[in-house]
Structures are given as C-alpha cells and as structure tokens.
Specification:
18 strands, 5-stranded mixed sheet, alpha+beta, disordered N terminus, globular, Nucleotidyltransferase, domain 5, 454 residues
C-alpha cells in the first residue's frame, strides 16, 4: 500500500473519531446518553443520565477514574438476532433488535435520547505499538514537548481492510526513566512515548455503523467489548501492575491486558459458550434451547464421584407435534465429559493468546474471568490448572441505578461502556495531527488537555 493511501485513511479516521467526540460533547451538555452493547447472544441498552449530586460511600460507584457523576435511569436487554461471532450476519434482524432494545430502554427511562456509545465483540481486533522520540532543549519538559512527541509517532500502514479504532498514549520516558505518566518538569536529553493502536476488520465495523445509521441514532463513540469488560472488572491494582480480563461470552471470547492503568492489548477469538451448547445439542440429540438449559442448570467441567449417580434428564417427554417422546437420560459425569474438552480448548486458546502478548512478563499476572460462560461450575478451578493460580471470578463494578439483573457477569462490557461514555481515555484524535502541527497550527487544544489531565 502506498504511503499516500495510508495517510488518506488516517485522516478519514481522524474525521470520524472527532465527529463522534463532538456528538459525545453534545450528549454531555444535554446530560443524557445511551450505551449499546452488541453481543452474539444479547443486545443490551442502558440510558445514562449525568448529575452533580454528591456520591456516598454506599453507592459503590468507584473506579480508577474516581467518582463519576452518573446513574442508569433505564435499561433493557433482548436476544441478539442477526449477529454471529460478534459481527452482523443479517442486517434486517440486527436493525430490528437494536431498534427494539433502544426504544424499550427509552420508554423505561421516560427520556428521549439522540446519542449512543456502542461496543461490539467481533471484528478481529489487533493491537500494535507506535513509538515516538524527540530531542529536548536545555529546559524542563513542558506541554509543547509532550505535544511534539505525540505528533512524532508514525502510524503504521494498515491494510485497506482494517479500521483504526483506538490510538492511546500509554507510556512516556525521559532518557533512562521509563513508565512515566507525567513527564512534565523533568530534565533530560530526549522524550519518548509509546502509543497503543487497536484496529479492527473494516467490513465488520462498517456493517455495525450501517445498522446504527438505519436506526437513526447519532454515534458518540464506538469501541470493543474486550476493552469495556476490562474497565468494568479489573480493580485499580490489577490495572496498575498488570492484569488481564477474559470475557467468555456466547459467541466470542474477548481478552484485554492492562498495565499502568492503560489497555495495552486486546483480541477476540470466535469461540464461546454457544460452542459448548452446540456440542451438548448434537451429542445428546436435543434442541439448542434445551441444551442451553441443561448446560446452565446441570452443567460443569469438574467431575466428582457423586456425579456418577446424578442423573440429568433431556427433553420434555413431548415432541414438537405433541406426541409422546422418549426422555433421554445421562449421568452428570457424561455431561461434564462433553463440556470439559471444549472448555479446555477455550482456555488453551486464551493461554496461547496471553503468551503471544507477553503477559507473563508483566509483574502482576492476574487474570479475571467474566462473561456469561464464566459462571459454569468448576470453570475457575479448571482455569487455574491451565492459566495459572492468580485467577479470580469478576463481576462488573456496581454503578448507580444498575438493575439487579444486570449485575451478572454477562453485562460486564455494558457496565464498562457506561464508564467509558462518562469519561473516555484520551486518544490521538484529541490532538492536532502531525501535519497540522508541522504547518504551525495552534496547540491550544492540546495545552488545555494537558492542564486538565495533570
């Protein structure tokens, strides 16, 4: 790909992202915004209202970003139709599901909402690193130097079928001093920065954007579920010293790694709880819905001697025509024998992805399991055998107004999206582009950001 083509693509991305940032600013001025989590098995919508009321300790609305002044005033969830492996497969069904859940959430909230922030679980996200360096004049680092080093990062030439979703500065360094959050007022000869770049499949991205356009909503931000689950489930220490959030959903498994309170890696693999359900359905000859029920009620991945005598009954005793139908019976040990190999496969893939990302080199090495499939009995024990001992089960942070139903781990990405909508991390498009700075454009916008940030 020629360099001119890459530059054009980046400029187009900057325009899209800045337009979404402008929509979010408008939503904040109106003090209300919607968040939409598009998954393989469910689509969830929450209406978030911002206020200035002081928060109390028992509200438990705490994240590494500090207290956030918002509450959920309406929420609804519906079955995800038209979405497979986190990507749009049937446009009409997806449009109908989005419109249904968005309309119902507004009715519950008794509010009309024009702007929405969206996350999705597919589109094959890929992480890359861009670095920049500048020489320093004989004076302490100031805002101008920080703006210049951000502008010095060279964005790699992405393929034409990729879309840049995130571009976040994650680390500064002054000479030999690295892992700095704030390099200002330090003396040195050079200033370095690392920027995490996350791209996704452009076709899958455009299909989601197209569905939202047909639903007549103004997009105020779009991100990946892997990132949002990490925001919702990793505590401050885990985000600081190195933690991974593994969201095992219905159609996909999302992995995100955080270090120094920034996401440094994200990936999604097209395998999840529905694969286990499909195995049960095929092996025991029952419907998918019945297999899902058996998996949830009787399923597990670690067997005991007692399970040899624990009988599971498949089927209702009636066929679809209302005739008598034989009930198939199996021991729970047999059921676990079907579920465990697939669970091991999922965990082996997770281990491989974490190793490829260099997760074992981080000082924390803590892994949090979340997502709808994470509640399968015995999965945490099996995960400790395969992934390591520093594993815990993760629930999303409790935010004000969150319905009891949505405190379940399958809504981790939805809750993280609320946090992200209220206060997104700063990214490349919040600053002037390298060409704009080279042409002598004003840096006032960057200066305002750094004064507010630090």
């Amino acid at each position: 790909m020629r360099k001119s083509e890459s530059k054009f693509s980046i400029e187009e991305t900057l325009q899209k992202q800045r337009a979404m940032r402008a929509n979010r600013k408008t939503a904040l001025q109106r003090r209300i915004i919607a968040v939409l989590d598009i998954g393989s098995t469910k689509i969830a919508c929450m209406i978030v209202e911002f206020d200035d009321k002081p928060k109390h300790e028992d509200d438990r609305v705490i994240s590494f970003k500090g207290q956030l002044n918002f509450k959920i005033v309406g929420a609804h969830v519906t079955e995800s139709r038209g979405v497979k492996f986190g990507e749009v497969e049937t446009v009409a069904d997806t449009n109908h599901a989005i419109s249904t859940v968005f309309t119902r959430a507004q009715q519950i909230a008794k509010r009309n909402v024009d702007h929405v922030v969206v996350c999705f679980s597919g589109a094959r996200p890929k992480s890359e690193l861009a670095s920049g360096r500048i020489g320093l004049i004989d004076k302490p680092v100031d805002e101008t130097d920080v703006a210049r080093v951000l502008a010095s990062c060279e964005i790699p030439e992405f393929a034409s079928n990729r879309e840049l979703l995130h571009a976040q500065p994650v680390n500064f360094g002054v000479d030999h001093r690295v892992s700095l959050n704030d390099p200002r007022n330090l003396l040195g000869n050079s200033l370095d920065v690392d920027m995490h770049l996350l791209s996704v499949d452009k076709m899958a991205f455009d299909n989601i954007i197209g569905c939202l356009d047909r639903c007549n909503v103004n997009l105020a931000g779009i991100t990946t579920s892997a990132y949002m689950s990490g925001l919702a489930c990793l505590v401050e220490d885990e985000q600081e010293i190195g933690g991974a959030c593994v969201d095992i959903g219905g159609g996909t498994t999302s992995i995100s790694i955080f270090f120094k309170k920034h996401m440094i890696f994200a990936e999604t693999v097209p395998i999840g709880g529905r694969t286990i359900t499909t195995d049960i359905s095929q092996i025991f000859g029952v419907s998918f819905r019945e297999a899902e029920k058996i998996k949830t009620v009787n399923g597990g991945v670690v067997a005991t001697q007692r399970d040899d005598w624990n009988i599971c009954a498949f089927g209702s005793g009636k066929s679809t025509e209302g005739l008598d139908h034989e009930i198939y019976k199996a021991t729970r040990t047999e059921l676990i024998g079907v579920m465990r190999p697939r669970a091991e496969e999922i965990l082996e893939i997770i281990r491989s992805k974490l190793r490829e990302a260099g997760f074992d080199q981080l000082p924390g090495n803590r892994i949090v399991l979340t997502g709808g499939c994470s509640v399968i009995r015995g999965l945490d024990e099996l995960a400790k055998r395969i992934l390591g001992k520093h594993i815990r089960f993760g629930l999303p942070i409790r935010v004000r107004g969150l319905p009891q139903l949505m405190t379940d781990p399958q809504f981790s990405a939805s809750v993280g999206l609320c946090l992200y909508a209220a206060q997104p991390d700063d990214e490349l498009w919040d600053f002037r582009t390298p060409s704009e700075i080279a042409e002598g454009s004003s840096l006032k916008r960057a200066f305002r950001w750094f004064r507010h940030k630090w």
